[in-house]
Amino acid sequence: ILNSYMDNVDSALDSVKNVEVNCSHLSAQIQTCIQKVGIIRYNAFDNVGSNQSYSIALLDNNNNGVVLTGLFGRDSSTTYAKPIKKGKSSHPLSEEEKEVILKAME
Questions:
Q1: DSSP code of 37?
Q2: Considering the entire predicted model, what is its pTM?
Q3: Minimal CA–CA distance to 54: which of 43, 65, 45?
């Protein structure tokens, strides 16, 4: 009976080790998943109302990700995507984009 219990303990220890390895793997993986989101709506042009333009920041735990901006006018709309690395971009950012990145990082 004692040998049977020891086998069960060994099996349980192996299961715990597998769970620890999987947990460690998931913990590392989750650092690169989107965890921080910020969004603002605003009027990009004087002749358009209802805050139709927007900026959205989608960042991981390391403040890497993307900021998406949609500018809506009466005759056209434009969408921009700019990469973000450590909370900064190599592309020029508008004031709204800077604001939404800070909002996401809070």
A1: E
A2: 0.79
A3: 43
